[in-house]
Amino acid sequence: MKTLPQSCEQCLKEFSLALEDLKIYSNRAKKLKTPEASRELIINFEITHELALKLISKYFHKMGKGPFSGSRDTTVEAFHAELIDDGKTWLDMVIDRIQYNPVYELDTQTKFLDNIQHKYIEAFEKFEDTMEKKLVE
């Protein structure tokens, strides 16, 4: 049986739920400071980032734009379309994800974890606000 494609609104809801989970895992990682809590934070960040990219792609598809060849191109187009306001932070997300390698000890990933907690969650919150406004228009 075929399933219906998700709407932008459904993608936004899925992203918003993932963002709430990410905030919970961020607080947990701050409190526990364990390798397991850090891994969970990174996993939830990656899920949230993927859902943000999915929402951007779905929005562009609705507008008759795209498809784009990857997360970097999608991010650049989202910046040009004013869906995101800090293109550098969003491109840093893409780079951090590429550079992250769970084979290495997590203490080498301190910068990535710090970026998630102090830059990326805030960028996701701004994106969520922007998309809520765009989808009402």
Question: What descriptors fit this protein?
Answer:
transferase, 137 residues, HepT, mainly alpha, Nucleotidyltransferase substrate binding protein (TIGR01987 family), Four Helix Bundle (Hemerythrin (Met), subunit A)
Which runs of at least 5 residues are low in confidence (pLDDT < 50)?
Answer: none
Class of secondary structure makeup: mainly alpha
- Per DSSP, the total helix count is 5
Distance between the termini: 33 Å
- Percent helix: over 70%
Q: What would you call the shape?
A: globular
Q: Averaging pLDDT over every residue, what do you get? A: 90
Name the CATH architecture: Up-down Bundle
According to CATH, what is the class?
Mainly Alpha
- The strand count comes to 0
Write down the domain tally: 1
Order of helices and strands: HHHHH
CATH topology: Four Helix Bundle (Hemerythrin (Met), subunit A)
Beta-strand share of residues? under 5%
- Radius of gyration, whole Å: 15 Å
Main sheet characteristics: none
Protein name: Nucleotidyltransferase substrate binding protein (TIGR01987 family)
InterPro entries: HepT
GO molecular function, one term: transferase activity
Keywords: Transferase
